[in-house]
Amino acid sequence: MTSPKNQLAALGPLARQLVRLRVWMGGRFRIGDLQATIFWAVLVGLLGGWISIGFREATDWLHGLLTGSPEGFVASFAAMPWWRRLLAPAIGGLLAGVTLYWGSRIRGRRNSTDYMEAVAIGDGNLPLRASLIKSVSAWFSGSSGASIGREGPLVQLAALAGSLIGRWLDFPLSRKRQIVACGAAAGIASAYNAPVSGAIFVVEIVLGSLAMETFGPLIISSFVAVFATRPFLGPDALYAAPSFTFAHNRELLPYLGLGVICGIGAAGFLRFLKSSKAVFSRLKLPTWAQPALGGAIVGALAIWYPEVAGNGKSLVFGVLHHPGTWQVLAMILLFKIVATGATFGSGAVGGVFTPTLFVGSALGYLVGTFASQCLPSWNLDPGAFGLVGMGAFLASATGAPVMAIVMLFELTLNDHILLPVVLASLSGYYVCRALYPHSLYENALSRKGSALVARHLASLRLLDLLRDDRHLLPATASFGAAARQFLQSSHDHLYVEEDGRYLGAIALKDISSYLDRQELESLIIARDLAHEDHPALLSTLSMAEALGTFATSGFERLPVMDRSRKMLGVVTKSDVLLLLAGNPDKPGQTR
Amino acid sequence: MDFLGFLHSAPLLLDFTADNERSALAMVANLLRDNPAIADHQRLFEAIWERHCLQPPLLGNGIALPHARTPVVTNIVFALGRCKPSISFGPDGQAVKLIFLYASPPALVTQSLAVMATLASRLKDPAVVAGLLAARNDRDFKQCLH
To answer: What is the C-alpha end-to-end distance of chain B, expressed in Å?
Structure first.
């Protein structure tokens, strides 16, 4: 808002030139919401990558401290005496449990720490202290050999970085959710050196829909995160696999069978994880004791099979390169499933993504071994089945076949296997959904209760997306004042109010040709320039109605007013689209 | 934008007298009473007067350009006037001799601005203003604006 004195002041030659430059720049290098979103997506991607590096380093350090070996989990556990195999995960679990217990006592905020909830149904706010406590707990579990992946805390911390940025800069709801989603994508991408999968993970699992408005920033964050981690982790695929060939179409038949088996197996795996949780909760142990017990179970299993320790990354690599006998692999698979169930059920914080990859690859290898013995003339390669099984099981368990297919390619960089992977992943996905309707991550949301989801959806209003507009002009503002206001604004329209009521909008293109006409200063006021038919949104509109107005008007940004025409702020089309894209329900049902 | 076309067809009141700025504007606006592009002459005048009261559009050199965007007109309309003696306009009491009154429909923002800019540019020329003040009839007056 300009003072009356300024309103009447003439537009000087310098200001005139600046407005001209602004018009020229606006026509060629439009800096709008999209560019701002890309900037934040890049920043969050960078932070996600650096967080990933930091967390890996911290995990390796603590792992070395607890096991006395800098080697990977399997090698370090194999080198330890039996009592230390038992103790290391138990102590790690105890530390993780105490951390959670301590955190639950000091936690003040009631906001959920679940990034999926924050993106899909929440307000995009992740509590700092609770998220850090959760990550520290995951650090203890993951470093000590618990059968759990480190992607959980990586995603949590990267999403937290996005949430903090959104909160500090007071982003509107949908933009905050978007930036949290970017963090989650960066976390997954940097954890698996898989940029496209990171973005698709969020789109398919968290958002549940694909729109370029959402996908673009996600993929930018993912790529930036991967670029940030590459100097530390190297450019190679995480699970570089031997080159498998797909020689004959008839091979698709056993791969189809593998998909069906993976679907059945994944349904059983998901039920087992859920049951493990139920068993632990029936024990009614204190919060701090549950992860300790889970760790002790993993430690006990590791006495016989040290391969069960850790997230299972080296096991996946082993299946693809030197799987050993099928009998040993079957035993490791069995033990690993139990270890994962014990860890997951005990409430240890982390992810089951990598253990899921191992279960799939081992199951695939075993099916491949059986198929190659049944059909010796087809020259089937059990290793290729391991690879395809990994994708099919992942697709089935996560309920995200597209992500699984893309991730398998990014993890292995083996394109010969794509056709069987697509077939097996889709068949596995459908079989699994038929047997068990909830995916690995849907469980997380459904545990929060569908009532909570419904409550959040019912509370979504246009006002939640409102942005402050500091470029509101009084109707009596002079021509020069309007021009100067355009200099301070990055938008092509200024809104005009009269007697506290929204009047209309001034278009930059209307006045750009007359900036050198000093005589207009005393003749024209903002009211003379305002398009009174410029569309505005009533604050009581539903999201769907607002989107309809955006669609018919063609504007990217519209003012919002209440019933008395008092202007409340502005809403952008991107914000509405982002909200609807991240909304698991239909637009019309958001109110 | 056929600016000259608008001016040529505009009615003109030469050397009229008025007590104050409101009656001066009313007299010039009254020239448009029979214009078919105006649905409600009274509302047209009220719109012009309301806008004038917000901030009188005075160019200086004794020239006023009262104007308004109002739905009661279907196209841009002009009315011209020259008063003798001059009349005090605005809070500063500027002496006004020439009145260029116009109105446009609300949607014609750019056209209205173009008209204002063109007219103001022409009236910046002291020779044009002198010619307008010296013109003896309608034809001479409008000739000066060419």
So the answer is: 15
Is A442 in CB contact (< 8 Å) with chain B? Answer: no
Separation CA A31–CA A539 (nearest Å): 27
Q: SS3 breakdown of chain A: % helix, strand, coil, rounded to 5? A: 70, 5, 25
What whole-number distance in Å separates Cα of residue A203 and Cα of residue A406?
13
Distance from CA of A469 to the nearest CA of B (A): 23
Interchain CB distance below 8 Å, A524 and B57? yes
DSSP tag of B92? T
Distance, CA of A232 to CA of A223 (rounded, Å): 15
CA A278, A284, A286, A292 torsion: positive or negative?
A: negative
Q: What is the mean pLDDT of residues B24-34?
A: 93
Read off the tokens for A381: 């390669």
Identify whether the C-beta of residue A572 lies closer than 8 Å to the C-beta of residue A33.
Answer: yes
3-state SS assignment for residue B63: strand
B115-129 as b/e: b if 16+ CB within 10 A: bbbbbbebbbeeeeb
Edge-to-edge strand order for the sheet containing A567-572? A537-538, A557-561, A567-572
Determine how many CB atoms are found less than 10 A away from the CB of residue B69: 22
Q: Any CB–CB contact under 8 A between A511 and chain B?
A: yes
Tell how far CA A351 is from the center of its chain: 13
Residue with tokens 């979103």: A37
Phi, psi of A490 (to 5 degrees): -100, 10
Q: How far apart are CA A427 and CA A417, in angstroms?
A: 16
B contact test, residue of A5, A524, A533, A534 with most B CBs within 10 A? A524
What tens digit of pLDDT does each residue of A30-86 get?
A: 556 667 778 889 999 999 999 999 998 999 999 988 888 888 888 888 888 988 888
Q: What is the ipTM of this complex?
A: 0.92
Rg for chain B, CA atoms, rounded: 14
Measured CA to CA, the distance from residue A198 to residue A195 in angstroms comes to 5
Domain map of chain A by residue range? 33-238, 249-454, 460-581
Q: What is the DSSP string of A35-48?
A: HHHHHHHHHHHHHH
d(CA B78, CA B141): 14
Q: Which amino acid is at A213?
A: E
User: In CATH, what number does A460-581 get?
Assistant: 3.10.580.10
What pLDDT was estimated at residue A114? 64
| Domain boundaries A33-238, CATH class | mainly alpha
Q: Print the SS3 string covering A207-221.
A: HCCCCHHHHHHHHHH
Q: Do domains A33-238 and A249-454 have the same CATH topology?
A: yes
pTM of the entire predicted model: 0.63
CA dist A569 and A537 (Å) reads 10
CB nearest A531 (choices: B55, B109, B123): B109
> CA B50, CA A344: separation in Å to the nearest integer?
74
| Amino acid A8: pLDDT | 39
Which residues on B lie below 8 Å from A514 (Cβ)? 113, 117
CA distance A187 to A203: 14
**A249-454 maps to CATH 1.10.3080.10:** yes
Stretches where chain A sits below pLDDT 50 are 1-9, 447-451, 453-454, 457-458, 583-591
